Amino acid sequence: MLTRATDADLPEAVKLINASYRGEASRQGWANEADYIDGERTTLETLRADLQANPAAKLYLTRSSADGAPLGCVWLEPHDREVWYLGLLTVRPDLQAQQLGRTILAEAEAVVRREGGLTVRMTVVHLRDILIAWYQRRGYVLTGETAPFPTVDPPRDDLHFVVLQKPL
Ligand SMILES: CC(C)(COP(=O)(O)OP(=O)(O)OC[C@H]1O[C@@H](n2cnc3c(N)ncnc32)[C@H](O)[C@@H]1OP(=O)(O)O)[C@@H](O)C(=O)NCCC(=O)NCCS
Description:
This protein is an alpha+beta fold.
């Protein structure tokens, strides 16, 4: 179900991610950042640069078997052999709450396991209680660690990330 995105897939991935995280379109889903973060989640330049800067990272997409449209995505990146970072877990807003998110998450964890990974870590904006609870129901635990929110314009000193992890 998950296939590794190539450079040619990135424009569609950016559209999917931006429509799902923030802005009016994302409100069709149940978990988004529209209430407290404006602007786009990423850009083609940023996503491409992030992939180039992290050659071991992979972006995976899942597409419709009917028309090939992108339905969801996830980012996986080994910190070392055992600990992997998972990010950009995304399901198209109109398809959310139909168990696609947990299916992509489980497949991503299976990829990590196959590669010898033992732990998945992720960061979530600290205000996203409903999403944090969703990850906790999938076996993730809050580590107590925090990480700074990236520099944006205007700066958002009121936001930070919490770190969750799951032993596989
Ligand atoms: C987070 C996300 C990937 C989940 O995908 P999904 O396909 O909706 O997830 P699932 O269908 O597997 O799970 C739906 C869950 O939402 C719950 N849910 C549905 N509507 C809800 C609502 N209005 N409020 C709270 N929970 C709700 C369901 O009860 C179910 O949870 P449970 O089975 O654990 O009880 C998806 O919402 C998304 O792409 N959000 C935008 C991008 C994002 O913020 N990603 C997270 C990055 S850290």
